[in-house]
Design goal:
468 residues, alpha/beta, Lyase, Ornithine Decarboxylase, Chain A, domain 1, TIM Barrel, 2 domains, nine-stranded mixed beta sheet, eight-stranded parallel β-barrel, 28% helix, 26% strand
Length: 468
């Protein structure tokens, strides 16, 4: 019988030991002893060798997913007589090994700051395969991007036109640029809203775009290659993309009537499953339906289909990774519901909002499973709490686990590959966890975990003699 404190979407009949397909990486399974393992490496071995909390990436899964996404957009664009450029959205999770992974898979890389640019360059990527975003790029960031030969810079406001043009002229380069435009379509997981204007910090309106493109084209140091549009994140379905394409292609056609426009970047935002019951649209359907929508609008506007660019991030790395925690304490809390008592089991782990800020920031829902064993105990409604001094420090708001979960157990929270490490902090002076990648049955650290020495190293008030 479901606990009355459980949300409606949470199915009490699901085996509390089961690994729900689509949320976990391909290489994750239960081994013969009931332990959760990734490519044969058990959770206990991972915890023993690398500690907890720990981000664990199935690198083979991430590589396969990157190749699948690229192949889907390649096929869809070929079917409408054009080609695709797929940029990995580095803000999802970026380190040098991930840059190499996606480049090996034939992708470009999108960065949104000077720091992300530095990571991409440190990985050895050809700068021509990098796109630079940002609503407030500093002059120094622009100058560095131009000087190293970044492939495209997305202009976000009229202020940036002359800044990029000046940097390019000083460097003796012609810089390729896109212009970010708001289509007035804002999409969320299951719905979208179409309006005349969108109240947000990114981009400019469709009405203002022609004059700004004319301004861009007036500079010999700039090459306008096309528009850029991004309608949201964690989107299921393609209805919002189709509506946005209708508006953006009409603008593209207007600009192309003045001078050629080679490309159209439609952004990303494709959703993944985080919990049982989530049903994201498969990437092949997304690619095909967006491509067909663009083709139809191009035909209606009597303009050739441009090269189409996309920027997936979460859909490539999101389900590749789980976070491994150790249980510290458990606590039953009784709550009155409709005059009757109901119990929720709080399970506290050794991480929290410092390694996964999304539940606190957005109310994001996650899933959890015992990682070091299976149990025949009756399922109990649990809330996985972090160790921070915040009542809102919740990792998993609601799920069912075997009721005998206890201190010393290991828990795994899947689908933490995107925006968890990227948003990680040192709140309460917790050290940020390591990231371990498993490839071909071998585990290696791709991002070193922090130590207390790292945390103290920036404190200028500490005498050097006290740092060791």
């Amino acid at each position: 019988m479901p606990n009355p404190l459980a949300p409606e979407w949470l199915d009490a009949s699901v085996d509390a030991n089961a690994l729900v397909p689509g949320i976990w990486a391909n290489g994750v399974e239960r081994d013969g002893s009931g332990q959760l393992s990734v490519q044969g490496i058990t959770a206990s071995d991972l915890a023993h060798n690398f500690g907890t909390p720990l981000y664990v990436m199935d690198e083979d899964h991430a590589r396969a997913r990157a190749e699948q996404v690229r192949a889907a957009f390649d096929a869809a664009c070929t079917s409408i007589g054009t080609t695709a450029k797929v940029y990995y959205a580095g803000k999802a999770f970026l380190c040098t090994e991930v840059v190499r992974l996606v480049v090996d898979s034939g992708l470009y890389v999108d960065v949104a700051s000077g720091g992300e640019l530095a990571v991409a360059l440190a990985a050895g990527i050809d700068p021509a395969r990098i796109g630079l975003h940002g609503n407030n790029k500093s002059v120094a960031e622009i100058e560095r991007a131009v000087s190293v030969g970044v492939g495209t810079i997305v202009i976000d406001s009229d202020w940036e036109v002359e800044r990029v043009a000046s940097a390019a002229a000083s460097a003796g380069r012609t810089q390729r640029v896109r212009l970010r435009v708001n289509s007035g379509v804002h999409a969320s997981t299951h719905s979208f809203l179409a309006t005349a204007h969108e109240d947000q910090k990114f981009g400019i309106t469709i009405a203002d775009a022609p004059a700004l493109v004319e301004h861009i084209r007036s500079f010999d140091s700039l090459e306008f290659v096309g528009l850029h549009c991004h309608i949201g994140s964690q989107i299921f379905g393609t209805t919002g993309f189709a509506e946005s394409a209708k508006r953006i292609v009409a603008l593209h056609a207007q600009l192309a009537s003045v001078a050629p426009v080679a490309e159209l970047n439609l952004g990303g935002g494709f959703g993944i499953a985080y919990k049982p019951g989530d049903a994201p649209t498969d990437i092949e359907t997304i690619a095909a339906e967006i491509a067909q929508a663009v083709a139809a609008e191009c035909a209606a506007n009597q303009v050739a289909v441009p090269v189409l660019a996309f920027e997936p991030g979460r859909t490539i790395v999101g389900t590749s990774t789980f976070t491994l925690y150790s249980v510290g304490t458990t606590k039953e809390v009784s709550v009155e519901v409709d005059g009757a008592a109901a119990t929720r089991l709080y399970v506290s782990v050794d991480g929290g909002m410092s390694d996964n800020a999304r539940p606190a920031l957005y109310g994001a829902e996650y899933h959890v499973r015992l990682a070091n064993r299976i149990s025949p105990a009756d399922a109990a409604l649990v809330r996985i709490a972090g160790k921070h001094c915040e009542s809102g420090d919740i990792v998993v708001n609601a799920d069912y686990l075997p009721g005998d979960v206890e201190p010393g157990d290991l828990l795994a929270v899947p689908a933490t590959g995107a925006y968890c490490w990227s948003l990680a902090s040192n709140y309460n002076y917790l050290a940020r966890p390591a990231v371990v990648a498993v490839r071909g049955g071998e585990a290696r650290v791709i991002v070193r975990g922090e130590t207390e020495h790292d945390l103290l190293a920036r404190d200028a008030g500490i005498d050097e003699r006290n740092r060791s």
